């Protein structure tokens, strides 16, 4: 992407975010606020797409991490119940907090859009892998997204979901430890179930 | 969980150049229960607030209108010791790109929040930070006091429980161990962490311990490996560059910092180091470009120093652009009027005139530099630089006097003695003659110190006080003299009763010693003596 375009997208992204905040202050435009908010986030993703990503792995407490993520989306989607379960994860896990927050934020945002009433965030340590999982009680992923499993789908979906999952897969694969690489896994159980495995 | 009462007690400072953002933050914070809130729009106002109040939390936007960014501001606050270690510093940024670099910076904020954010996310993360602040309070206090032993002890108390802060505690303990010169212990700690997980900070910590143990090749290899895998890990560039300088390879050091500059616009300290290296490796045009750009950007910012202008002036002088060099110094003189800055600028001016071959103007500038303050207030670096200029302008006697003073004021410091030696040899002295001069100055001050102690032991307290106090005032950086002067006055107070003047004097010496060396062994002896006085 040429630098001028990147700067312009950046500018518009910030303006949309400010618009969203002003709409929220008004308190009578929840739907409009969300449109502006989502548009800002999509632009953030497009900007990310283009940049070389570096991983800075450090310690993260999964309960604090998922707790903050749940709090953020509970405010945006007050009609949904978002539960966090980190009982089967250790106190200290290792990943790039900023990158994984972005990937999971995107997956959680999708879940919030498709869920009927409930979303569950889980962290579990399994065979030297940390699994971060987001499941909802909606209708599940469309077949094309399940097939792609985080690869860029042939035709980018109109909702931007495919792009977000592609980015999440890229972020997972950047995490390396002792020869093992992170990955994502999508399934319908029957609602969407997004899993990120980190070494 | 952080309770509401905890939050309402906290003082918060918000710095953001955008009005919309300020009001949003003010609203979010008030609705989260924060009651003590100051909101400012630029660094100058922030500094005014910081001078008058203590803040528990600082929220700062990364991009601040006037050219200095939030990261450079944080670096300035930490370098100048303007905030406590326990103050929570949160960086707000609109660009994901920065978080990558900021997170791995030498001087990292406690947390960073990406715009746009919701107030619920903000509050959730805030509460965790407040919990963390309380958990680390005692450790941070020890750190502010530079009491490394206590800091290590407080870390050990908490490490035993292996809770979620285990790695954070280990990281902080590693720094304290290095400050305390417990290099072997630090190495063990870093190796243990690396076994659990090869985190970059632990690998860089290990590289630091290797460098300290003279395993420079291993340290360099490790630092290069870190940078190969994580090119955004800025602290590793700074370390590697210093390592190269120590091995005498300034050209490689400069290359390392130039690579760092491609990743991040850079902290002020890195920009300074880079410019200095460029001038010293005869590439003044690099220094000129970087310093000019930096000073243009930070034109009205408090993060500038007189030395930045001096560096630019030197870069210009090295290219023969002496008229430009002089106008840079003139410009700096308007902003920097303290005696230390004045001296530095006058000294730099001396070099410009010398390069022009105008010894008359050079001598006038040198006189300005010499009269900028009492000689006892000159830093060793300033003394050595002044001496160098004196030699160049054939004022050998004055030069020798300055160098003797530098040695006597720091007679246990080999680095300074080495620099004095270099200047003497550069001025044409025979190396053995230079060593003899340094040895004689050292011997003279040791003899004076011993005489003071001997007289005190012989009960001639007033003679001892006279001798040591005079020396301590003349040589305020000589810690041995300073400690002994305080000790004999305290002894006199215990034996011969209280005297307001003497008490003031002993407290002044003691606080000067403490400031320069917080864990100096003489401090305990002085304090024991003063306690006897109270009872």
Describe the structure concisely for a colleague.
The complex is a heterodimer of chains A (199) and B (535). Chain A has 199 residues and is an alpha+beta fold. Chain A contains six helices and nine strands.
How would you describe this structure to a colleague?
The complex is a heterodimer of chains A (199) and B (535). Chain A has 199 residues and is an alpha+beta fold. Chain A contains six helices and nine strands; from the N terminus they run ααβαββαββααββββ. Chain A is globular and about 50 Å long. A five-stranded parallel β-sheet of chain B has the order 2-1-3-4-5, sandwiched between helices. At the A-B interface, α1, α2 and α3 of A face α2, α5, α6 and α9 of B.
Could you estimate the helical fraction of the residues of chain B in percent?
A: over 70%
Please tally the helical runs of chain B, counting DSSP H or I stretches of 4 or more residues.
Answer: 28
Cα gyration radius of chain B (Å) = 26 Å
For the sheet with most strands of chain A, the description reads: 5 strands, mixed
Pairing-aware structural class of the strands and helices of chain B? mainly alpha
**Spans where pLDDT lies below 50 across 5 or more residues of chain A:** 154-159
Helix count of chain A equals: 6
Q: Helicity of chain A, in percent?
A: 40-55%
Structural class of chain A: alpha+beta
| Radius of gyration from the alpha-carbon trace of chain A, in angstroms | 17 Å
Strand content of chain B: under 5%
Give the largest interface: A-B, 38 and 40 residues
Strand order of the largest sheet of chain A: 2-4-5-9-8
**Helix and strand pattern of chain A:** HHEHEEHEEHHEEEE
What is the straight-line distance between the termini of chain A? 32 Å
Mean pLDDT of chain B: 89
% residues in beta strands of chain A:
15-25%
């Amino acid at each position: 992407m040429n630098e001028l375009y990147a700067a312009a997208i950046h500018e518009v992204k910030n303006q949309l975010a400010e618009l969203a905040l002003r709409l929220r202050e008004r308190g009578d435009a929840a739907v409009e606020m969300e449109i502006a908010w989502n548009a800002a986030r999509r632009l953030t993703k497009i900007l990310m797409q283009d940049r070389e990503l570096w991983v800075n792995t450090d310690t993260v407490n999964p309960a604090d991490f998922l707790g903050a993520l749940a709090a953020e989306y509970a405010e945006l989607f007050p009609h949904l119940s978002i539960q966090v379960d980190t009982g089967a994860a250790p106190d200290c896990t290792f990943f790039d907090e900023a990158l994984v927050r972005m990937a999971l934020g995107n997956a959680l945002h999708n879940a919030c859009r498709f869920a009927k009433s409930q979303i569950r965030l889980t962290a579990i340590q399994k065979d030297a892998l940390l699994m971060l999982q987001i499941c909802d009680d909606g209708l599940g992923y469309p077949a094309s997204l399940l097939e792609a499993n985080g690869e860029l789908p042939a035709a980018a979906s109109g909702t931007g979901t495919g792009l977000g999952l592609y980015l999440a897969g890229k972020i997972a694969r950047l995490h390396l430890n002792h020869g093992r690489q992170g990955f994502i896994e999508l399934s319908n159980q029957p609602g969407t179930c997004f899993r990120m495995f980190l070494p | 969980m952080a309770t509401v009462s905890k939050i309402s007690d906290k003082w918060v400072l918000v710095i953001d150049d955008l009005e919309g953002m300020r009001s949003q933050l003010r609203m979010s914070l008030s609705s989260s229960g924060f009651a003590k809130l100051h909101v400012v729009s630029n660094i100058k106002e922030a500094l005014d607030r910081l001078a008058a109040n203590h803040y528990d939390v600082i929220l700062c936007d990364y991009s601040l209108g006037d050219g200095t960014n939030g990261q450079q501001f944080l670096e300035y606050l930490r370098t100048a010791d303007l905030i406590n270690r326990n103050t929570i510093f949160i960086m707000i940024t609109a660009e994901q790109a920065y978080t990558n670099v900021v997170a791995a910076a030498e001087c990292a904020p406690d947390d960073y929040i990406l715009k746009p954010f919701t107030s619920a996310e903000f509050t959730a993360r805030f509460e965790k930070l407040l919990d963390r602040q309380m958990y680390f309070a005692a450790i941070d206090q020890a750190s502010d006091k530079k009491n490394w032993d206590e800091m290590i002890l407080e870390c050990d108390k908490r490490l035993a429980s292996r809770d979620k802060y285990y790695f954070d505690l280990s990281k902080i303990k590693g720094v304290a161990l290095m400050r305390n010169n417990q290099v072997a212990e630090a190495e063990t700690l870093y190796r243990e962490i690396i076994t659990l997980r090869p985190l970059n900070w632990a690998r860089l910590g290990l590289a630091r311990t290797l460098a300290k143990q003279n395993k420079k090749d291993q340290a360099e290899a490790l630092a290069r490996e870190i940078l190969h895998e994580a090119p955004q890990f800025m602290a590793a560039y700074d370390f590697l560059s210093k390592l190269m300088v120590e091995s005498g390879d300034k050209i490689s050091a400069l290359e390392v910092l130039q690579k760092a500059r491609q990743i991040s616009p850079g902290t002020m300290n890195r920009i300074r180091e880079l410019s200095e290296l460029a001038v010293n490796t005869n590439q003044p045009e690099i220094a000129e470009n970087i310093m000019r750009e930096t000073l243009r950007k930070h034109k009205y910012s408090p993060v500038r120093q007189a030395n930045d202008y001096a560096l630019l002036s030197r870069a210009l002088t090295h290219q023969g652009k002496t008229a430009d060099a002089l106008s840079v110094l003139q410009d700096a003189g308007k902003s920097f009027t303290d005696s230390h800055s004045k001296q530095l600028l006058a000294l730099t001016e001396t070099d410009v005139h010398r390069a022009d071959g105008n010894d008359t103007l050079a001598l006038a500038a040198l006189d300005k530099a010499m009269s900028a303050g009492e000689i006892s207030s000159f830093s060793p670096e300033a003394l050595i630089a002044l001496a160098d200029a004196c030699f160049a302008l054939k004022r050998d006697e004055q030069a020798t006097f300055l160098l003797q003073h530098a040695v006597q004021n720091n007679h246990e410091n080999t680095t300074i003695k080495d620099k004095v030696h270099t200047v003497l040899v550069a001025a044409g002295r025979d190396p053995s003659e230079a060593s003899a001069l340094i040895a004689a100055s050292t011997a003279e001050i040791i003899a004076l110190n011993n005489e003071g102690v001997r007289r005190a032991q012989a009960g001639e307290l007033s003679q001892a006080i006279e001798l040591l106090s005079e020396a301590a005032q003349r040589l305020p950086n000589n810690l041995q003299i300073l400690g002994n002067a305080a000790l004999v006055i305290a002894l006199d107070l215990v034996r011969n009763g209280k005297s307001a003047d003497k008490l003031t004097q002993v407290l002044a010496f003691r606080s000067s010693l403490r400031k320069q060396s917080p864990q100096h062994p003489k401090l305990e002896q002085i304090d024991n003596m003063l306690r006897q006085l109270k009872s």
